[in-house]
Amino acid sequence: xxxxxxxxxxxxxxxxxxxxxxxxxxxxxxxxxxxxxxxxxxxxxxxxxxxxxxxxxxxxxxxxxxxxxxxxxxxxxxxxxxxxxxxxxxxxxxxxxxxxxxxxxxxxxxxxxxxxxxxxxxxxxxxxxxxxxxxxxxxxxxxxxxxxxxxxxxxxxxxxxxxxxxxxxxxxxxxxxxxxxxxxxxxxxxxxxxxxxxxxxxxxxxxxxxxxxxx
Length: 215
Hints:
By secondary structure, the protein is α+β, with helices and mostly antiparallel strands. Helix content is about 15%, strand content about 20%. It has a 5-stranded mixed sheet, covered by helices on one side. A 3-stranded antiparallel sheet has the order 1-4-3, with no helix packed on it. The protein has a two-stranded antiparallel ribbon with strand order 2-10. One of its GO terms (biological process) is cytochrome complex assembly.
């Protein structure tokens, strides 16, 4: 059991939300933002701070069998897994069932407005969405006012990324992921190809080669 110590001595961002410590091994420092479940933040994302001013290094719990380090390349461990039976809405109430995305390759990106690495890679996801190489679906993990996600994307000039909302973090729980951004590629049959945890340049030639794995 880990004692938190007197609350007055804890950094402000640690006191924002309770942290659920799961009995998994603390494996590595990762490039990303920790979600408030299954993770121990060491100086990562403060939801009340400007994302551009936040640090991006956290320590995250992960299974001992994890095959890929976040930000280091794709993880093929779950290849062949079908699209999850989950649905999300946008601020207008329009619904998206993920299983309906089968038929062409799709890249699902989990992000949040308070996550600096997520925000940094959004323009490259916008460029990828405009290329037509793969369908890009961005699913926000923000809670609170649903209108803020659409307003955030509009303010950044991101016209191709839609504000799909997952305020309960259902998709992150499905992927057993505690770090953002997380991006998952599916082929045209709706089968997972790989997962990528951490920031990436989604418009780079190296990434285009990875996307080609979807066929």
